[in-house]
Amino acid sequence: MISELNNWPKYKIIHKSKITSFDFLLDHGLIKHIDLDYYYAVPDIENQFYKIKCESINTSDDVETMVKAFIKKLNTYNELKDCCESLVGKIAELKGVRIKDVREEVEIPE
């Protein structure tokens, strides 16, 4: 096999230090180890790389799950904020001061 790889430009033999996304390429079998820190790219590496990347991105279930989780967190945040605003209003009413004064006192930004 090594003798077949003597044509470095044809087989894209490169040193590990020059390989971007080394772990990804190795994990997905897009580069093969030759000797020491030298590797060669499998034929048609560019197309295979983009195919794998696109498959990992184009998962609509993951996107829908992420959007639902985000909306749930946003709803929780809004409920907590409303509760906090209500408490600040009650404190201001009990102290007989403006809401702005209470917000400044407890360091709540506008």
UniProtKB/TrEMBL annotation:
Keywords, ordered alphabetically: DNA damage, DNA repair
DNA repair is among the record's keywords: yes
Keyword Chloroplast attached: no
Domain of life: Eukaryota
Pfam families with a match to the protein in the record: Swi5 (PF07061)
GO cellular component: Swi5-Sfr1 complex; Swi5-Swi2 complex
GO-annotated biological processes: meiotic DNA recombinase assembly involved in reciprocal meiotic recombination; meiotic joint molecule formation
InterPro entries referenced in this protein's UniProt entry, alphabetically: DNA-repair_Swi5
Family the UniProt entry places it in: Belongs to the SWI5/SAE3 family.
Protein name, UniProt field: Uncharacterized protein
UniProt source species: Vavraia culicis (isolate floridensis)
